[in-house]
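Morning run. Coffee first, then this:
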Amino acid sequence: MTSTTLAAPGMRSEALTRFVHRTGLAQNRQGLVGVVITVLFILVTIFAGVIAPYPSEDMYPEISLQPPSAQHLLGTDEFGRDVFSRVLHGARISLMVCVISVGLCSIVGLMLGLAAGYFGGWIDLIIMRIVDALFAFPVVLLAIAVVAVLGPGLENATIALAIIFTPSYARVARAAALMVMHEQYVEAARSLGASNDRIMRRELIPNMMPALIVQTTLLFAIAIVVEAGLSFLGLGAQPPEPSWGTMLRTGRDFLEIAPWLAIAPGIAIFISVLGFNLVGDWLRDFLDPRLKI
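And here it is:
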């Protein structure tokens, strides 16, 4: 074994220590907890097929509604399916919905907010009145309305989430653009004859990213809750897909005889949402220079 091989673990540990100190995680213990939870959540979604001891949709009626045991860590459901395996695969569905819905809303919301903040005038007026109109509806109610029009299903629920998140993202993008566009480097780019497109791409968007990154992280947490709510109502993922929301809906009918059916996905939702919220708070403190001492 070479000295380089021996030194590799120490070098990785040293790099990790520097990262923790430079990002303020050494002082922000809540942020560190959030990062750990989020990383574990992502790893679980990636390796769910490897970690899960059983296929998530295999049914064994002879062992239905068995309590947690060494063979089934979180027990079995009414069809004899392993609850632990279904919770792991449910994390994959939640992350997929989060990535797609937040990704779509960030693209559309960024374009709308950037156009409203940079050009102002009637463009700003029209965009923000549409955004205000969408804000008049509660988030869950608007999501239900969109899914009712498109039809139930995971794909339509994802589209609904993207639609209801776009107004909030557009507002954040507009506010960030208004803060950045009057900076001296933007005025210098204008005086040098840079086009609007170049100013927005090279000057505004990169300097808007701290606020947008924080908003994106917080929307991940909201997406998990809303997707679970839609699935609980039968408007999101459809059986036999192992969504946390559908698992909660099933567990409601067996609370007295098999409480683990509802407790397991409920705890999974709580922990994952907590992790993203803590990461969002840490990123806000780390990326906003006004909050640094």
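The chain is about 75% helix and 0% strand. Good start to the day.
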